[in-house]
Design a protein that fits this description.
alpha+beta, 25 strands, disordered N terminus, six-stranded antiparallel barrel, single chain
Length: 494
């Protein structure tokens, strides 16, 4: 059988010749995909065609431990990069430097915007204005109500006068009657005198003793006296009956108007009070709206001081300028919502690991990994393989071109301040661990067509069963005991 690695599983297929012509077909068999496997038994150290006795030296078999592991190198990278946009159009006043290490909440940029400063002053002024207008409402209410009370008092006075005049208008007046009768008597006497004089003037005018002008003047006096008698007769009649109907109607009208004006003033007092209440509510709403806008402007100005949303490293982004792509710098103008910085979040770091192509079939997702920094190899950290990328590279991105490589992604199971993006570590995948087992060097294990064997100290060939091996040693399951003496090949050690 031949074992072929795919990203999802190990596929077992059969070959019909040594050239490994694959039958059955499989969607994972891609052009130029390197596969490997074996026919019959797993690979083992090649048999030495001729074991020279002068190259062998004795070795005592003992109990020991052995680790079978895969080793590789890796570098940290951040799984999350946070973009920092400008909350408002403005100018960059200060900016963190590329590669700066920042903590959560640390200031990384300060932006300025003249429009925001202008809006802040206008809105602060509007808040002060509305607050002042609200504070004047009690004084305005007191003044208005006082004016209305004075007006109501005046209208009540006018109502009492109108009521008195109306009463007098419908009540006869003895004094007026006597006065009118006396006046009328005098006028009648004067009329009698004027009538006699008028008769004598006619005779004198016909005899030519007086002028016609003198005659007309006397006639005019007579007519004027008649008018005065008519007026005085009317006054006498009115005094006897009280005021006339028209005058009584006028007084009644004045009384009704006085009552209406007083009622209107009372209603106006209530109406003005409600108007002031509504005005106060409206001003309160305007003040709250102005305060809300002021708070919004202040938050916007505060947001122009940009703080890091996570602990990590600063990366200045690029923008198109007249000179081409350039990174953002102090003094640059920036549009609203344009991203100008990025923060690599070190709380969400993973490892990009690289292994040689021959190990592709020996790793799987979920496999445990141990890694360490080269300057502190005894400080081990734990991780787990989260992804295997079956893309074969001709050389490792870490700089090794001696073999072909593939990539595995590793998630650390713990956090440390040392886990910084682009920091490099070495890692190992433990495939098996053996403790208190019979361990011999690979240089003392040989194999031919019959299987594995060792050379005893007496020079005899002895078959053994191999449980497992790594690049240096092998675990013997049967055929040897602790303390046995075997021969190892010094030339193979070299």
């Amino acid at each position: 059988p031949v074992a072929v690695y795919s990203r999802w599983d190990i596929k077992k297929i059969r070959s019909i010749s040594c050239s490994a012509c694959i039958t059955g077909g499989d969607r994972h068999f891609l052009p130029n995909l390197t596969v490997w496997g074996w026919l019959g038994k797993p690979p083992s150290p090649p048999p030495d065609p001729e074991i020279a006795k002068d190259s062998l030296c004795p070795h005592t078999v003992s109990l020991g431990s052995m680790k079978k592991k895969i080793e590789g190198s890796a570098e940290f990278y951040s799984r999350k990069t946070v973009m920092i946009p400008s909350p408002y159009a403005g100018q960059i006043e200060s900016l963190a430097t590329d590669g700066d290490s920042v903590s959560t909440g640390e200031i990384i940029a300060v932006l300025t915007a003249s429009d925001l400063d202008k809006n802040l002053k206008n809105r602060e002024s509007l808040v002060r204005q509305k607050s002042a207008e609200i504070s004047l409402i009690p004084a305005e209410r007191e003044k208005l109500l006082l004016e209305l009370k004075i007006r109501i008092a005046d209208l009540e006075k006018k109502l009492r006068i109108a009521d008195s005049e109306h009463f007098l208008a419908i009540t006869p007046d003895d004094y007026e009657i006597e006065k009118a009768e006396s006046g009328l008597t005098k006028l009648n006497r004067t009329r009698n005198i004027l009538l006699k004089k008028h008769q004598s003037d006619k005779e004198l005018l016909s005899g030519g003793y007086i002028s016609y002008f003198e005659y007309l003047q006397n006639l005019d006096n007579l007519q004027q006296n008649s008018i005065e008698i008519s007026i005085m007769s009317y006054d006498l009649e009115r005094a006897r009956q009280g005021d006339g109907a028209l005058e009584r109607l006028g007084k009644e009208k004045e009384l009704v108007l006085a009552k209406a004006r007083l009622d209107e003033a009372l209603v106006q007092e209530q109406h003005q009070s409600r108007i002031l209440d509504l005005k106060e509510k409206d001003l309160t709403l305007q003040l709250k709206n102005a305060e809300s806008k002021l708070d919004s402007t202040r938050r916007c100005i505060e947001s122009m001081t940009c703080r890091s949303p996570a602990s990590g490293y600063v990366l200045r982004l690029e923008q198109w300028t007249n000179s081409g792509l350039e990174k953002f710098k102090e003094g640059d103008q920036i549009r609203r919502y344009s991203s100008f910085l990025a923060i690599t979040d070190i709380s969400q770091v993973s490892l990009k690991g690289y292994l040689r192509e021959k190990f592709l079939s020996q790793v799987s997702i979920g496999q445990k990994v141990r890694f360490f920094f080269s300057n502190s190899p005894h400080q081990m950290y734990n991780g787990v393989i989260s992804e295997i990328i079956p893309f074969i590279m001709d050389e490792s991105p870490m700089g090794d071109s001696s073999s072909r490589y593939f990539q595995v992604n590793i998630n650390p199971l713990e956090q440390s301040p040392r886990f910084q993006p682009e920091s490099q570590v070495n890692f190992e995948i433990i495939q098996a661990e053996y403790d208190k087992s019979l361990i011999i060097p690979l240089s003392g294990l040989f194999h031919d067509t019959s299987g594995f064997f060792i050379i005893t100290a007496n020079g005899e060939k002895k078959k053994v069963e191999v449980m497992d091996s790594n690049q240096e040693t092998a675990v013997i399951s049967s055929g040897l005991s602790e303390g046995d003496r075997i021969m190892i090949n010094e030339s193979r050690e070299k």
